[in-house]
Amino acid sequence: MYPQEKQVCSLEQAKKLDEMGVVLETTWMWWDENNMEPYVQIRVPLMSKYAKFYPAPNVAEFGILLDPYYVAFREYSFSIMKPPTLNNQDDWEIKVFKRNGITEAHARADAFIWLLENGQLKSENLKL
User: Fold this and answer.
1) pLDDT tens digits, one per residue of 37-53
2) Domain limits of the chain?
């Protein structure tokens, strides 16, 4: 079985999204408890009193959040693509990033963060 930590964004990416003010109700969360190694667990809202948690979107949730963008993933790179407009069917916008040893969830998280940082997506418009 593929470890859950590889199916969601990394803890660092989750913290970055939190710092950016992105509020998401995801299925999975990174839990960062005192004196324990951080781990991924299904979201349990009442537990937030006892530990710091960060939403951890998975590949499917990023698919919803990234609409209308597509992320093409390869082992050592990923691309963000925006489909053409109705007026110009050949007008694909593509941005390619190089990064070693990432999972598809990490690539989608990086793409999502880049789009937010560059004003292509607005955090207040995000819904899961």
Assistant:
1) 888 888 876 666 667 88
2) 8-121
